[in-house]
């Protein structure tokens, strides 16, 4: 297959200002989309009794509950601070060095032994990009041919 620039979008090839502007346009259309669904969502919530629960919890007799009005934002801020603190603790503890080491190279003979195939098949698999692997009756690789996708 040939590369078609009209089918594949490269957003990072665009200028940052243009990407940001199109991001805001996309956000605006998503907001409009959700706004258009709001009457149906309101109907479903009303049928499930959510509207009644809202009035009972927050606006009983059309009064705002001061405890809920003050405590819920405080609890939300405390949860956010706790989450940020935990993330910063983990970043400080684990972020200094990468503890993952490089994997040792595996020899061609080890790959062939792991596959149960001849070293020539393992070498062909190593050198090819896209292949069709032929299996014998014992479900072990016996041969390999390059795929048509690799030649395009």
Automatic annotation (TrEMBL):
It holds the Pfam family PgaD. The chain crosses the membrane at residues 21-47, 67-89. Keywords: Membrane, Transmembrane, Transmembrane helix. It comes from the Bacteria. InterPro entries: PGA_PgaD. One of its GO terms (biological process) is cell adhesion involved in single-species biofilm formation. This is Biofilm PGA synthesis protein PgaD.
């Amino acid at each position: 297959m040939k590369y078609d620039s009209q089918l594949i979008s490269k957003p990072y090839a665009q200028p940052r200002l243009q990407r940001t502007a199109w991001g805001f346009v996309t956000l605006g259309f998503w907001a409009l989309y959700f706004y258009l669904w709001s009457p149906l969502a309101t109907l479903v919530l009303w049928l499930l009794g959510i509207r009644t629960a809202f009035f009972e919890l927050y606006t009983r007799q059309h009064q705002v509950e001061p405890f809920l009005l003050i405590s819920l934002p405080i609890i939300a801020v405390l949860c956010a601070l706790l989450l940020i603190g935990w993330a910063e603790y983990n970043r400080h503890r684990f972020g200094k060095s990468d503890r993952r080491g490089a994997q040792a190279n595996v020899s061609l003979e080890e790959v062939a032994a792991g596959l149960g195939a001849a070293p020539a098949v393992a070498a062909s698999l190593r050198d090819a990009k896209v292949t069709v692997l032929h299996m014998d009756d014992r479900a072990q690789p016996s041969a390999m041919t390059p795929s048509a996708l690799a030649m395009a």
